[in-house]
Amino acid sequence: xxxxxxxxxxxxxxxNVAVVRTTQRGxxxxxxxxxxxxxxxxxxxxxxxxxxxxxxRVFTNxxxxxxxxxxxxxxxxxxxxxxxxxxxxxxxGQVQISDMERNAALEDTQRTVAAMVAAKCxxxxxxxxxxxxxxxxxxxxxxxxxxxxxxxxxxxxDCVRLLRERGVLRIERAKMELRFELDDAExxxxxxxxxxxxxxxxxxxxLREVGAIFPHxxxxxxxxxxxxxxxxxxTSTTTFxxxxxxxxxxxxxxxxxxxxxVILRQCVTExxxxxxxxxxxxxxxxxxxxxxxxxxxSATATATATAQRGNSTEEEExxxxxxxDVDDGVEALVQRTKAAKIEDVDDDNDGRSDDxxxxxxxxxxxxxxxxxxxxxxxxxxxxxxxxxxxKEEAAERSARSEAERVRREEREEARR
Length: 416
Description:
Elements: E1 18-24, E2 27-33, H1 38-43, E3 59-61, E4 66-67, H2 70-77, H3 82-92, E5 94-95, H4 99-120, E6 121-122, H5 132-142, H6 152-166, E7 172-173, E8 176-183, H7 184-191, H8 198-210, H9 225-229, E9 235-242, H10 247-256, E10 260-265, H11 276-349, H12 365-415
Antiparallel strand pairs: 1-2, 1-5, 3-4, 6-7, 8-9, 8-10
Helix pairs in contact: 4-5, 4-6, 8-10, 11-12
């Protein structure tokens, strides 16, 4: 008997299909989508369902090709319109993704966060940005891990904070360069015909309190004096820099003064080629500052140890004086007790005992107690000396470790 060979010529392999499924009223509903379009649709980038769906129908089982009935859709979703049901499933349904897709999404998020850090942060000493590769190495060094669902901006802020806390890189947010414009005519009316500089100076003082940095000593002036003499409205402009986190406070201060705020540059960075002399001078200044800090820390530790040694010496001398006074008092009491006992024995026995032998001296327990007390005091002195010595050794160790840390930082800077 011959066997008939059959081939699944009409079988469709689900190779590039992402199934989004949901369960309503005990029934499962699924839609077949493209893998790279679901996230775009949920983020609002893609709105055309024909670009998201492979088949614009609702299934109960995509693998088996079973379509959902209109009566089931009506019971589960309250409508039989398949387009509305599909949009609901796409928004609230669950998507099964593979490990490779998950790893690819995490890698993309990490690359995005590193690019944001490299674009918006600089070295606080040189004012120059880091490369993306340096940022990614630093992220691995400090143990920063990206989250698959959190926003990239929040993770960028967390990454910068962690890098600064762990000390992997010298990094800070790049300054923003702003300019406020203030009409002098309003200030003249308010001040009663003054020169119009009072409001500007008050605003500059307020911005300095907030944390603004003015690169120039004096703010830039407004228009010429001819326009002021003719009664025309002149505008004073001043350029300054702030940390991006202070933008809202600065904006409210400028608006409160009746001025306008203009953003000149989002990130202020050093550009151009590096000058060797400037870099060498900057490194020399850093080494001198580090050496001064180490010397100050060592001097502070030495002064602290000396003060502790002096205090402990004074306490020991005071305690020794008190112990000597107590010992003298105890010895005098012992001598008086012995003399009194000897006199009592002489009066009773007339200098002799009943058997004609000389009297036996009574034991003096007070002498033993005094000796034991002296020994206890000596032990306490030894323990105090040992504690003082341990404190001095700890202070010396901390000073040595601080100096070693400063030298290590200098070597790292020299290698850079």
